[in-house]
Structures are given as structure tokens and as C-alpha cells.
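Quick check before the chapter quiz. The format below is the same one you will see on the exam, so make sure you can read both the input and the output lines.
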Amino acid sequence: MVSIFARTPAKLILLGEHYVVHGAPAISTALDMFIYGRLDDDGQGLVSLATDRGVKTVHYGVAADPVAGYYRYLLESLGVDRPPSLHIEFEFPVSAGLGSSASLAALIYILLYRWLYMRDPPREEIYRYASEFERMMHGNPSGIDLATVVEGGVILYRRDAGVLDRIVPGEMEGYGILIADTGVRRSTGELVSRVTQNLGGLPSDIRKGLVDTVDSLVMEAWGALGEGRWRDLVGYIRANHYLLRYVGVYIDAADEAVNRLGMEGVYGGKVTGAGGGGCIYVFGDGRELDIARRVLEGFGFKTYRPNIYPYSLY
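Here is the expected output.
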């Protein structure tokens, strides 16, 4: 029996989430936390998913399951009439703001393409097919999650233009990233709709002012990233935290945790992704990350210490 293997990374939005849906740019990075996949040419068409919620196995023909539906769509699109089985294991939590749906969508397509053609798919094909699953899951996504997973490194992204720039930071002088999973799960589509509604209820000049503020903030942060001004980046992250609080992204536990970090002198913390639970991340030096780990694990959150993943998928 032929088996094919692949892996795809997680993603972390550093600044600009939610506002990116409304035209502001955002900064996002791929992480060296992965989804691992194996395709077995057995003709059974099963999809097995091992996540932080347990193991689930479905047949590709199950109509109500979104992953089965996406797999079925790919099989039909690629003309496969004897479907192989997929075995997929998540190294990071799902539905937690780390790009699990985008990473999974890319992984399944890459496995199928490698099995059919014995080579990696071209970039535009990954985007074409994986975007379909993102639409199934999130309705009208900005596209930043998939772009981060596909491109790797750190990207500057704007919805109407795609990837504006990409860098892979060099030596970060002792700075790094800590992620904490609150354990609370939510729907990205529902959170985006809620924030859109909150913004829509504001006077147009205030709404435009918020989007313009995030635009300036993100561009300043991009400059800091490129120039290695890590302490300045901490300040931009803190400012973005307050702008996200304003539009109703935080649950009480996440808000309290970020406030506690500030009381301990750690200021580079905020939610990432849709919010409403999911993950918090902290950017800081080694001392700050040690404090952050203690504080966040004290809230009962599971912590991770990933690095930037610099490689593209094509």
C-alpha cells in the first residue's frame, strides 16, 4: 500500500485581526507547530482526525461533516474514483485562533496532489482549492490565515491586495513568542460577524478612524519588525490589545489574564485570531516570557513556546 506524508504549519496573527476584514493591513506569522498528515492508498475513503478534542473518523461521503465535504469536493474536482484514506494529527489546538482550518485545507490538498502526481502542487492550486474550505468554514474570510500557512515566514497582508511583503526575521536578541490556550472554543465566522456588527453600530467617522488607526499601527509595527526594534513592537502589540477590546473580542478570562500580565510588567500580550476565547499570545524577552508562562498557567491555560516557521508550502 502506498502512503504519502505531509505537514503544514500553524499561524499567528501578530497585529490587525478583525480590522483586516474591514480594509486595514495585518501582520501574521507561520509557526513551527504542525498538522501531520498521512494518505493511505487503500480505497476506503476514511478521514481520521486526532485533535486536542480526541480522535474522530468519518467516511468522505458523510454529508453533514465539513471536512468530509471538503475531501469529497477535492476528490470530485480531481477525478478520483477510488478514494484513499487520510490520517491527520494536530500538534496545536483547533478552533483556537491558530489557523487550524487553513492549515488542514492546505494539507489535504497537498496529500492528494502528491499522491496523484508525485510532486508538490503549484502555489496557485493550493490557494484555489484550500480557499474553498475556508469559505465553507468561515463564510467570507479575509484570506490571511491561508496566505500565512502557504507563504511561511512573517507576512504583511491586506485583504484587497493579498501579501504586500514577507520577511523572515533573523536573530531576535532573546525575544520570542509564548502562546496560551484559554480552552474556550468559538466560531470564527460568528466572531467576525459580531465584531462587524459592533463596528457597524458606530458613527461612520469613528469606524473609519479606528480602521485608519489600526492601519497606521500595523505599518509602524512592520517597520519595527524589519529593523529589529523589538521593544517598540511590544508597544504596538499593547495598543492593538486595547483596540480589540473596544470591539468586543475578549472573554472575561482572557481580558483578566492580559491585565494581570500588565500588572507583572509584561505588556506584549493580546488575543490572536477571532478571539472569543481561543489563544492569547505574548511577545517579549526571555524574562517576560518566563513571567507570562507562570501567570497564564496560573489561569489554567496550556502554554506553547513556538518559533517562526520560515518555509513556504510550494
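If your answer matched, good. The longest strand covers residues 26-40.
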